[in-house]
Please model this.
Amino acid sequence: MSAILLDGKACAQVVRAELKEGIQTLAGKGVQPGLAVILVGDNPASASYVASKTKACTELGMLGETLSFPEGVSQDSLLCLVAKLNADARYHGILIQLPLPSHLDSPALLEAIAPEKDVDCLHPHNVGRLLLGRPVFAPCTPAGIIELLVRNGIEVSGKHVVIVGRSNIVGKPLAVMLIQKARGGNSTVTLCHTGSGDLSRYTRMADILVAAMGKAEFIRGEMIKPGAVVVDVGMNRIPDSAKRSGYRLVGDVHFDSAKEVASAITPVPGGVGPMTVTMLVANTVKAATLFAEGQRTHL
Amino acid sequence: MSAILLDGKACAQVVRAELKEGIQTLAGKGVQPGLAVILVGDNPASASYVASKTKACTELGMLGETLSFPEGVSQDSLLCLVAKLNADARYHGILIQLPLPSHLDSPALLEAIAPEKDVDCLHPHNVGRLLLGRPVFAPCTPAGIIELLVRNGIEVSGKHVVIVGRSNIVGKPLAVMLIQKARGGNSTVTLCHTGSGDLSRYTRMADILVAAMGKAEFIRGEMIKPGAVVVDVGMNRIPDSAKRSGYRLVGDVHFDSAKEVASAITPVPGGVGPMTVTMLVANTVKAATLFAEGQRTHL
Model:
């Protein structure tokens, strides 16, 4: 058996085309959705992610700006910047690219973002509403995964989804979204992690398996139930002298063995990544729409 | 095999004795922890829960007051009351007894409570912090379940916990607490619900099975893995003419068949219930302690 590919790039194009309508409606009201991305330091992976985020915005006629700071920037400077951006009507969304250097207090910075501009959905208020089943924004990677599945005709309702990895960005919020009684939800969810012991015991039960633990090519074919759908959230750079960059990107799934067992699988790159970026754009359009409707106080 | 009983009443007494120390320390600083409970309507179950909550407070030398309102009370009156209680230094904790009559907007009322007084942990801010792994308060029933297990020497780390029921009060926050890398966490968690199809498929895998779906005696012995620990969160009143009250309390677990299969089981009543009330007291003491330390702005 060879799995069908879940093409995130193609799916993202479809979603972006739909978003264009909302952006045009807003333009008619004199509102241009705007996203401000805060980038600290010179990590090349972070810089590349940020570039793809702002580019996705500008390509759709939105404002997408990167505000770059040296590695040594102080907590106070960033808090001051966030306060300014909260008050700046040009920006409906504010994103702080993670991870930040260790001298910075990431939670405090994320909590400083006004919840109505928290398009990355990392403010406790938005995270809490997500768990309580009353989301305003959905976190980008989990939302992108669900969109990718649903738009490829893969029903998640009633399925057993096994998630490996309990990060605040992917594993935990994805579990929380999938168990809700809502579109793109109603799954039975098992969340595994480094404390789970023999992971195969769980991964082999999955109708849909999500690998999000950040270990290159960890999930191999023999850990997958035949016919399962496999979502690979990993983005690991491993040295490769054959590449001009000196590295290649691989996921958390060992693609070659997995594709022989799974019924469908996301590639890396070109799977979850483009969907994540697209959901960020979608959240920014939503923030601008709520702003235009005067619902900023709704949060 | 006959399971050992996990005695919530006895465990609650131990925890309450420990809380007394904190209460005495606060008394030395002139602070008496205070809890205000808002009770709407005349549902006898709600009235009985509220009575046990305020009684637990007063028995420990704390202030515990019930503010009762008729079924028809308006949203605005309650919002106004909550605002007053937020500003009232006598009360460190505010709890709205659920469920509320359908004409009231429960989420809006819960969100009106100042997060630092939200001892029931239902404000989005506190729920979000719980998911993000930075809790201030822990929701009472989930925290009570974990305390009961841990204090009975039942390790949850590395265990497969299967939870049936996805309420905002029990199932969802318990899952969220158990998957954290923290004391009383690090479990692998599966969350099941009405959309899960054949529940036995999941319940039979559980090392620790938590029944929290509100269906009287639904989980029978044959749905339980031999030797599993069974936690029964159900509180169902079923008619019983032999009782003076006309009803008896049963859990979500069919006790007689379950106790022959499980290694340990919570009774109903006298299992999770007393622990829930105790955790509410613990949260109120914590709120008062943070208040005394001048950390109200910490949230």
